[in-house]
Design a protein that fits this description.
3 helices, alpha+beta, about 45% strand, about 30% helix, Nuclear Transport Factor 2, Chain: A, 6-stranded mixed sheet
C-alpha cells in the first residue's frame, strides 16, 4: 500500500508540473500576442505590481551595459498606443526550469515591425506562483541587430 501511495503522489506531482508548465507557456503566449494586438491588458494581468525589467546590450568599446526599465507601466502604455505597424516578437527554443513556485523561461526571439526585421536576442522571464497563479516578476532580454538567424523566425507566429 505504501508503494501505491508513493506512486500516486509521484503521478500527482508530474501532473501538477505539467499543468504549471502549460500555464507558464500560456502566459508567455499572452505577452507576445498582447504586443501584436496592442492589448496591454492582455500583458498586465500576468505581471506582479513589483515587476522589474532589464535589457542587456553593448555600450561604448563593446562593454556590456545593463539598461533598467524602472517603469514597466511606460512599456505597457507604449504597447497600448495606436500604431500603424504591428510589434511582432517571434520566439523559439523555449527552455523552462520550474520548482517550488519559481520558474524561469528562456527563449530566443526576433522582433519585427510588421514584416520588417528590427532586432533579435534572448528573453528570460522569472515567474513566481502567487495565490495559486503564476505571475511575472522579472524580465530581462538582450538586443542585437547583427548575427541573427532570422530564417529560424520566418513564418513563425508563436
Amino acid at each position: 500500500m505504501l508503494v501505491l501511495c508513493s506512486f500516486m503522489h509521484k503521478l500527482q506531482a508530474q501532473s501538477d508540473r505539467a499543468a504549471d508548465s502549460l500555464a507558464i507557456i500560456k502566459i508567455i503566449d499572452d505577452v507576445f500576442e498582447g504586443m501584436r494586438k496592442g492589448d496591454s491588458a492582455m500583458i498586465s494581468k500576468h505581471l506582479l505590481p513589483e515587476v522589474i525589467m532589464h535589457s542587456v546590450g553593448l555600450g561604448p568599446n563593446e562593454q556590456t551595459k545593463i539598461f533598467t526599465d524602472s517603469k514597466p507601466a511606460a512599456w505597457l502604455q507604449a504597447v497600448a498606443q495606436p500604431k500603424a505597424q504591428m510589434w511582432d516578437e517571434r520566439t523559439i527554443n523555449y527552455k523552462l526550469n520550474l520548482t517550488e513556485g519559481l520558474a524561469t523561461i528562456w527563449m530566443d526571439y526576433a522582433f519585427f515591425i510588421d514584416e520588417q526585421f528590427s532586432h533579435c536576442g534572448v528573453n528570460s522571464f522569472q515567474l513566481v506562483k502567487s495565490m495559486g497563479k503564476w505571475k511575472i516578476i522579472y524580465i530581462i532580454d538582450t538586443r542585437k541587430k547583427e548575427n541573427c538567424n532570422i530564417s529560424a523566425f520566418l513564418d513563425t507566429n508563436n
